[in-house]
């Protein structure tokens, strides 16, 4: 594992459940619409920083000129490589937020989704993004908003010691980023899928509490997110 890597507690240890979550999240494409409203990636060179198992690489590759996925975890990187092996415009590399193996001013859009190295304390990663972006390039960061929505309330209960939404907003604003709030949802096929995802996203005691209170027929959960963006 590269130096400076911070573990991601969900996808690193529960890859299959995280894949279920990726399929369930934002079925209406509201987050993608928010990103596209800032910068359409058609014909551009795109970097997915912290690409995990490569879930989003294929979507970018449908219209981008090139797509590079950077991921520190070797098993996830191998999955991302396999799932994009027939896409000649996609490359998957080892790297971290603060050390990306690409030249200066080589990409037009950097996409960082649920990447745990972003937020207060991620200044080295943001400096690296600034090095990589061409003039007019855009960095987008997709994060959750624990101040609203059902999942936001659960997250706030489960992680009371993490920086709250006000602290994160102050951080991103001070770094020159703008916010697009998005209210989307998880939509699951089965209750088993819902429970598996809740169980990897929340501490076990909190997950048990919220699942016990949730009606057994529930398959959708409203989810508030933020798309933070900055243009060079």
Lay out the secondary structure.
Elements lengths: L14 H10 L5 H9 L6 E5 L7 H5 L4 E5 L3 H10 L6 E4 L13 E7 L9 H10 E12 L5 H9 L6 H10 L3 E10 L3 H11 L2 H10 L6 E12 L1
Helix pairs in contact: 1-8, 8-9
Describe the structure.
- With 232 residues, the protein is of the alpha/beta class.
- It has a single domain (15-231), classed as Rossmann fold (3-Layer(aba) Sandwich), CATH 3.40.50.150.
- Helices cover 36% and strands 24% of the residues.
- It has nine helices and seven strands.
- It has a seven-stranded mixed sheet with strand order 3-2-1-4-5-7-6, sandwiched between helices.
- α1 (15-24) packs across α8 and α8 packs antiparallel against α9 (204-213).
- Keywords: Methyltransferase, Transferase.
- One of its GO terms (biological process) is methylation.
- InterPro entries: Methyltransf_11 (IPR013216), Methyltransf_Superfamily (IPR050508), SAM-dependent_MTases_sf (IPR029063).
CATH class: Alpha Beta
Count of individual beta strands = 7
**Helix-strand sequence:** HHEHEHEEHEHHEHHE
Largest sheet: 7 strands, mixed
The strand line-up of the biggest sheet is: 3-2-1-4-5-7-6
In CATH, the topology is named Rossmann fold
CATH superfamily: Vaccinia Virus protein VP39
- Please tell me the CATH architecture by its name: 3-Layer(aba) Sandwich
Please state the overall shape, judged from the principal axes of the Cα atoms: globular
Distance between the ends? 30 Å
Averaged pLDDT: 95
């Amino acid at each position: 594992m590269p130096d400076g890597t911070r573990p991601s507690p969900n996808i690193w240890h529960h890859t299959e459940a995280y894949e279920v979550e990726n399929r369930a999240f934002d079925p209406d494409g509201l987050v993608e619409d928010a990103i596209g409203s800032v910068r359409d990636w058609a014909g551009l060179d795109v970097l997915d920083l912290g690409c995990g198992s490569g879930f989003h690489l294929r979507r970018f590759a449908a219209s981008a000129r090139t797509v590079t996925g950077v991921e520190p975890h070797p098993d996830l990187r191998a999955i991302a490589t396999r799932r994009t092996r027939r896409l000649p415009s996609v490359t998957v590399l080892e790297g971290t937020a603060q050390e990306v193996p690409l030249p200066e001013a080589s990409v037009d859009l950097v996409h960082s989704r649920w990447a745990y190295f972003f937020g207060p304390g991620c200044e080295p990663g943001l400096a690296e993004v600034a090095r990589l972006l061409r003039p007019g390039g855009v960095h987008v960061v997709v994060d959750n908003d624990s101040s609203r929505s059902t999942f936001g309330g659960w997250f706030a209960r489960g992680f009371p010691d993490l920086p709250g939404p006000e602290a994160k907003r102050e951080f991103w604003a001070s770094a020159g980023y703008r916010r697009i709030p998005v209210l989307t949802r998880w939509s699951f096929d089965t209750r088993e899928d819902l429970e598996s995802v809740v169980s990897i996203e929340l501490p076990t005691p909190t997950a048990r509490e919220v699942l016990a209170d949730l009606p057994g027929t529930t398959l959708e959960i409203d989810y508030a997110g933020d798309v933070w963006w900055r243009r060079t």
